What does this fold into?
Amino acid sequence: MDGNAQDFQKLYDEFRPKIHRYLRRMLGETDAEDVCQEVFVKVDRALPGFRGESSLATWIYRIATNAALDHVRSASFRQSKANVESADGDAPGDVNSDRAETTHLPDTLLVRKDMNDCIRGIVDGLPELYRTALVLSDLEELTNAEIAGVLNISLDAVKIRIHRARTRLRKEMETKCVFYRDDRNELACDRKPSTLKFRAK
It folds into this structure.
């Protein structure tokens, strides 16, 4: 029993910061902590039966991914997200009109660890299967083989999802973002001001 407890503590100390960061990117700050605790409760319970058919990292990320997706699909999460969107959705972006807009959108801007609110909001709006693959690949820096193990899909399916996610993200950013050079002459972006949308009824 003591050995199992020591094994879990070592695993917890190593992986908890990574899993919390991953869940924060998937769910946001508010929900990440609770789901992270839930993940490690499940890891603790399942650890004695872990047979080593995949790496520990892949196994833990799989548990975390399933927990995150279950949470995203829950009624409470959907309601809280709807409340945030209704409160913020029509607010104009803080876009400075004298910024030099650029239409060039390099891959380095698409997903990066220091994403601003504009990019993060669009990543959050991607379909679950695309967002999960993109976060695991570009932010968590898992290999395609590791992602295949986490999501329990083929390597080809992983490549397709990541490609489609990046394509979708690029189109969304070109539509919804204003690009400019910041004070450090680095390409950055802000959300375009919202425009009124009239729906025919």
In short: The chain has two domains: 1-89, 98-193. The radius of gyration is 19 Å. The domain at 98-193 is CATH 1.10.10.10 (Arc Repressor Mutant, subunit A). Confidence is low (pLDDT under 50) at residues 84-104, 195-201.
